[in-house]
Amino acid sequence: MVVLLLTQVSSSNGVPLSSLSPLPSSNPPLPFKPYPRFLSNNPKRPPNLTIARADSRPNDPTTPSPPLEDNETVCVGEERVPLEGVIRFDKPDLTSQLSKWGRVAVLAGGDVLVLLLFSAVGRFSHGFPVLDVETLRTADPFIAGWFLGAYFLGGYGEDGRGMNGFSKALIASSKSWGVGIPLGLVIRAVTSGRIPPTNFVLVTMGSTAVVLIGWRALLFAIFSSDKSQKNDVYRRGSPFELFELLTSLVRRW
Spans of biased composition, class Pro residues (predicted)? Predict the structure, then answer.
């Protein structure tokens, strides 16, 4: 319709249609804008691709990580006190073995000395020389019986070494004496070929009870290693601890 009107107007005015200027466009062309500077200058650069499994989810930095599991709290004692810190387990190393056998050596040496003292006092009371080989021969049966009884009845075990308290140490020493000294009398009777008189048996039992149980009770009373005293900050040391300290120093040296 517009073309027909233009044709009619141009024919009436005698103006050719080609000389007419085009109508101005309502939408002018947009000005040319260059590409942003932050875009890459290399359009052929391949995009960065990441291969992921189908069942995996992308790592979202905003996604909170799962909370860490709390360590299990161990409660000890009747009041269920929570235990915190590092637990140390004592392993049977060389130092502990030396300490153990050092205690046994001290007790065994003291037992032999008091039995030799018993034999020397007995020979002296009968007018025999003390510094003689017969003193050792008199004490031999009782030393053998004592070691046998102490070995089987815990005279050198934890109770006998005083590790579990003063009372248990005395009980272990008493049991060892109650079996070891009668066994020594039997050994003496067998080796000598005659049964000892009753007075000798009674004196022997009483004297050895005093010297054997007495010296051990004195040792454990002075140098007690009772477990109830291990929690004290300040406590008296013992010769066993001194021996353990010396062995550890020699080992480090």
Answer: 25-34
